[in-house]
Amino acid sequence: MKKYQIFIDGQAGTTGLQIRQRLASHPQIEVVTIDHDKRRDQDAKRELMSSVDVTVLCLPDDAARETATQARAAGCRVLDASSAHRTADGWVFGLAELARGQREAIASASAVSNPGCYATGAILLLRPLIAAGLLSADRDLSINAVSGYTGGGTKMVERYQQDNAPVYAAYGLGFDHKHIPEIQHWSGLQARPIFQPAVGSYDQGMLVMIPLQGSNGAALQQALSDYYQGEQFVQVLPYNEIPADSAPFVTPHGLNGSNRAELQVYGSASGQQALLVAKLDNLGKGASGAAVQNLNIMLGLEEGLCTQIV
Ligand SMILES: NC(=O)C1=CN([C@@H]2O[C@H](COP(=O)(O)OP(=O)(O)OC[C@H]3O[C@@H](n4cnc5c(N)ncnc54)[C@H](OP(=O)(O)O)[C@@H]3O)[C@@H](O)[C@H]2O)C=CC1
Ligand SMILES: CC(=O)N[C@@H](CCC(=O)OP(=O)(O)O)C(=O)O
Q: What is its EC number (predicted)?
């Protein structure tokens, strides 16, 4: 059986580690590593990138831009987990469930950009509804979200491992969170939304929530259900269903380690108020699970292989 080789630049970070954990049992992908003290040596990296099938970038944005430029100049295939290239020309957005033809585009791409965790939830909810004309592209929206602290990388993990970290903290108060451009670009939303994220004192799991005034929840749920019919990693729950493991609450928990996103729609009896909810693991479908899914697609392998930590 053919084995493909990949190199993870940033292999010791939060996202890189979780990709390695998933790939440890992959039957057709092996990870080639770089000496720790050479991890910032561009010559050593270029040599390694040229020898592997795909390089995965799990770096801060600036470092990802620099390494991606080198990789592309050398003709190497790249999957970038950072937010540097999510709306950039020449890059394919790595959300296979985005639209018909997206899987094929990922499969043949030389450069794929892995979506942001919050953006994954928001785009999965909004794109089908805007495309179907059930939500107007120029509608003013608020998107509220909460994530586990691993979403902030090693620095935030260290902070939360101390005693005085806040139980719940709202941020993004400059109204300029880095996921807003990709949410607008890939959902088709023309009006700039208010995106208001928060971080909680738990490690993994997120909710992305979009309240809608004047919308009928049942119609929205049906449209989402039809759109994602047959998808293995995106499921739409029945209308107004609260998952039994958390009832009467809707929590960010329950999907950790998986590469799944669950979409939920709640609506009022009047048919005039609704809430869209996406639940996912910020390190699963929001980062490392999606990265392994994209690698499988890029290499022509079964899409679900080793995307989950069991
Ligand atoms: N955490 C999450 O939920 C998600 C993160 N992402 C994105 O993935 C990327 C990585 O994030 P995350 O794993 O959280 O970050 P971390 O801070 O956990 O890890 C980043 C890693 O990159 C290494 N690094 C930094 N600069 C360089 C460089 N110039 N060359 C080589 N290695 C370098 C760091 O090692 P050292 O400092 O020791 O050199 C560290 O191991 C980011 O762009 C982030 O935005 C995407 C989706 C979700
Ligand atoms: C809790 C937390 O801090 N989360 C991160 C987003 C994590 C993520 O998806 O980051 P990328 O866009 O880099 O992929 C943040 O809000 O900046």
A: 1.2.1.38
